[in-house]
Amino acid sequence: MLEIRFHGRGGQGTVVATILMSKAFFRAGYQVQSFPFFGVERRGAPVEAYLRLDKAKILLRTNVYTPDHVVILDRTLIGTIDVTRGMKDGGTILINSPAPPPNLKAFSRFRLAFVDASRIAQNNQIGSRTHPIVNTSMMGAISRVLGMPPLDDVIAAIREEVPGDAERNATAAREAFEAVQFVEPARSAA
Fold first, then answer.
1. Tens of pLDDT along 68-114?
2. How many CB atoms lie within 10 A of CB 36?
3. CATH code of the domain covering residue 104
4. What pLDDT is recorded for position 179?
5. E-strand spans in the chain?
6. Interatomic CA distance for residues 116 and 176, integer angstroms
7. Phi and psi at residue 140, in whole multiples of 5°?
8. Least C-beta-crowded within 10 Å: which of 11, 52, 69, 189?
């Protein structure tokens, strides 16, 4: 079983990202669960959401306490909350950021990737200039980082489920897939 925890802020599409990724993974032949955990429910407040997938039926019905991977839709959460809490060693952390975080030592036990999903969303006019909605961009990045689900399944889930302009969102996912950068292990141990 693979468990992924998403960190974002209300209004960024964190919960929608887990729902759409669950649909993409389902298309790829996985059993899936997707569910949010809310604290104070308001725009801008920290939000967690979870995605669980497996090739076998999933009987577990709890929050994700020891994720294999973490997706961070808002880099300002780093240092504010412990985004690595309970995370398994060797897992991947994907951050919406134009550059890796300054304190790479804090992430040395993990594989680290980043993509400027905010810029991609702004360029595709998803959300507003000051509040880009980064979920579909991050979906493409997740596909690249994990090597699954296939990008075609991500695009199909976006086209089926995203209200408004699905093509702009599909384009953002494709662009983010191509734009992901990985931090070399030697640098992350420094």
1. 999 999 999 998 999 999 999 999 999 999 999 988 888 989 999 99
2. 15
3. 3.40.920.10
4. 98
5. 2-9, 31-38, 46-54, 69-72, 92-96, 111-115, 181-182
6. 8
7. -60, -40
8. 189
- Assign 3-state DSSP to the chain and report helix, strand, coil percentages, each to 5: 35, 25, 40
Is residue 187's pLDDT more than 60? no
Taking only the tens place, the pLDDT of each residue in 5-49 is 999 998 888 999 999 999 999 999 999 999 988 655 667 788 999
Helix (H, G, I), strand (E, B) or coil at 181: strand
Domain that holds residue 110: 2-188
Distance CA 165, CA 9 (A): 22
Element (H, E) at 18: helix 14-27
Q: What is the pTM of this model?
A: 0.92
The answer to whether 137 and 121 have CB atoms below 8 angstroms apart is yes
- Give me the number of domains the chain comprises: 1
CB 7 within 8 A of CB 77: yes
